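I am still getting used to backbone structure tokens and would like to learn alongside you. Label the sequence line and the structure token line clearly, so we can match residues to local backbone shapes. Go ahead whenever you are ready, and we will take it from there:
>
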Amino acid sequence: MPAHEIIVVDNNSTDNTRELVQKFIDEHPESHVILTRQTAAQGLIPTRNFGLDMATGDILARIDADCMIKPNWVEAATLFFDSHPDVAGATGPVCYYDMPLPPVGQFFDSLVREKQYSADGMPLLFGSNMAMRKSAWEAIRPVVCADVEDVFHEDIDCSLHLFEQGLKTQYCTEMVTGASARRMGTAHDSFRAYMQRFQTTFNAHPGHSRGGYPERTLLRLYPLLNTMYHVYGAWCSIFRVDTPELLWKSYRKRAHLD
């Protein structure tokens, strides 16, 4: 199932992103890709808001720049929202294509995010893999935090604002996204600062009960994850392995066996 539209928001990029996207549009005019530009402010949140405000669909989906959705993602999300009319937002599993044994990583990702990555008894939306109804976005748009100091997890901020509006989120196992584990490859101080964003975001939204503290688990596992990321990256570089392509090959193989 094709997407109703795919909005690419250029936020003052200095590489050849615009040229690549325009080339794709010229070669695939039927793909409904829209290339636009947001220059008023630099940063993820104003750029995210610009794109979501521009979207015309009933369901608004958002992924990160390092993500690839599974080929049936749009269909899976559409069917999920159609069959769950009381749900305002959904998130799903993330498979880290630049870590060894991606399906194993997806299994543990699902365990953590279904059990610990939650608040008020509901899953938090995850920026690499999230969708919400347009009506839900319109309800929280006036109150989502601008985070000018860039210290929040903006996807958690969105989730908490949904909960404050009495709206419901749910985990959809069929919405699978491939993402980079590049954060695992950063220096320890940088990784710790990124993990601190969890508590900083919740501190700005008092009154919510946390389902768990995934940042603590990740910090304990950091030495192992950092080593795995760099060793696997070196191995892939030596043998010229295209890790995203390898991920989807494994999915296609499993789908064929099923």
